[in-house]
């Protein structure tokens, strides 16, 4: 190393560039190798996890297809080319006969510690949300994670009214989370006592996602009613 | 100079006790407090960090003669970031649940002071084998620190250990142990314990010296 | 997610304080918070680096997604942060050499500050738009500075009190941090 400093045969800048170039190439190869090597496994894992959640929300479902609700209206099956920005992804769940059981969509809202990501199930016939599953959350164990187990909370989400207003541009009534025991309307979510923040996150997530998705989805229901 | 085998063992043990990154050098704290809410998470983080530490030190050591000193920090950072990216994808491929539990802290391994510190202080001056052995020792030391926290926080905060319930259904968990303040308190507690042990040892040595004088 | 800028600011500053609730930036938090006069400038310097990093990360992310190169995200973020720190060092050296010397080794250590990289990573994973990202960076930096200043004030006072020998040093700082963290838990839900 000291020999280089006393009698440089190449300019220091060239040496630096050469080293950085070599390091970048080696590292680039390692990263790309790891990415490609694990790509299939990661995709399989994600698909499995998603399927599990959708089937948990709709126990009668046997298969599902992913769709995009496009910003200009209309639905396109996922995987059929470019997805325009602002599209909302949803999953149509079908039973054995290929008939629509319900539509599952993702929602996210800030909870106590970080984002709470849920998958909620919408049944077109009753125009209501019938249940939800948690995709990812980091809420307090024993407090926030009661949303997974609390029976009253789940019951208040068994028939959550999310019908559209007259001109089908938004929900007729905003989904709101109310204090434990004060639920009076069908579009209210009964919060868990002592876990208000996390309960509110679930309500907010459903509301925000439904406000965007349902006005686009409901006019197009015929396109997804039968499994193609 | 002693023979090769004892030196390797010394290199390994140095990272576990005398220069334990957690309890002695107080490095790598961010991931430590954040992921040690359960023993499983703590262990996984230890394994991930070990992988990055050993591989980075290996590569840094292999390239040590080629890296001009002006760009060495940048080079080390790029190498470390590479292996962290690899670990990130491997964990996603192995278990998505674990990936969600560890969260952003997998990618934050890249700014773990331990790794850059080892690369700079040791790997850049030693051949690959001693560098990787020392890195392995450091990783074990770090993992021990992580486990020490994870085990205490899980037992107190959830009544379980590695998911196995210890005290039965009537146990009232001390939930604060799983929240940020608990992390600070438990680590502070461990450091207090070590400080107390150290002082007792010093007093005993001092009293022995006084006796023999 | 439709968090308003104000909500993000309050959350990053208080309810989800980067240091006391999210465990980011602990090394400088325990290392630099000995004296108030170094703690505050350190916080400001870190906030500035966070802001630059956040802006660059936002732009980089758009580029990387456009070219399907997400696997290069971590490397590019950390390189940007290292460069931003170099920039701050040069600026400080030129315009405020006293401060540059006072901060000493801790200035280049901002590169390994989890909080800076954490801000960039969180804004990416939460899909914040431009305004949200900038607010998050400023709020996060302000929260970091707040925690640092609080810690430094208390530690300065403690130097004059009778702390048992066994607890001196890092153990004491950690206990302090725990109490501060406990206090900040009271802000939960403030950001709506």
Tell me the layout of helices and strands.
The complex is a heterotrimer of chains A (228), B (213) and C (192).
Chain A (H helix, E strand, L loop, with lengths): L1 H5 L5 H46 L5 E7 L5 E3 L10 E7 L5 E11 L4 E9 L4 E9 L14 H5 L4 E2 L14 E3 L9 E3 L5 H22 L3 H4 L4
Parallel strand pairs in A: 8-9
Antiparallel strand pairs in A: 1-2, 1-3, 3-4, 4-5, 5-6, 6-7
Chain B lengths: L3 H11 L14 H7 L3 H24 L9 H23 L1 H7 L10 H9 L6 H31 L1 E2 L2 E2 L14 H33 L1
Antiparallel strand pairs in B: 1-2
Helix pairs in contact in B: 1-7, 3-4, 3-6, 3-7, 4-5, 4-6, 7-8
Chain C lengths: L4 H11 L10 H7 L3 H31 L6 H23 L1 H7 L10 H12 L4 H29 L11 H15 L8
Report on this model:
The complex is a heterotrimer of chains A (228), B (213) and C (192). Helices cover 36% and strands 24% of the residues of chain A. Chain A has 228 residues and is of the alpha+beta class. In chain A, the strands form 2 sheets. Chain A has a 7-stranded antiparallel β-sheet with strand order 2-1-3-4-5-6-7. Chain A has a two-stranded parallel sheet with strand order 8-9. Chain A starts with a helix and ends with a helix. The mean pLDDT of chain A is 84. Chain B is mostly helical and 213 residues long. In chain B, a hairpin with a 2-residue loop joins strand 1 (160-161) and strand 2 (164-165). The two termini of chain B are 34 Å apart. The relative contact order of chain B is 0.17. The mean pLDDT of chain B is 84. By secondary structure, chain C is mostly helical. The model of chain C has no long low-confidence stretch (mean pLDDT 87). Chain C contains 8 helices and no strands.
Structure characteristics:
heterotrimer; B: 213 residues; mainly alpha; two-stranded antiparallel ribbon; 8 helices; 68% helix; flat; C: 192 residues; globular
Unreliable stretches covering 5 or more consecutive residues of chain A: none
Sketch the topology of chain A as an H/E string, one letter per element.
HHEEEEEEHEEEHH
Supply the number of helical segments of chain C.
8
Assembly type: heterotrimer
Q: Output the radius of gyration of chain A.
A: 24 Å
Structurally, the number of domains of chain C stands at 1
Most strands sheet of chain C: none
Strand fraction of chain A: 15-25%
Helix content of chain A: 25-40%
Instruction: Please state the CA-atom Rg of chain C, rounded to the nearest Å.
Output: 17 Å
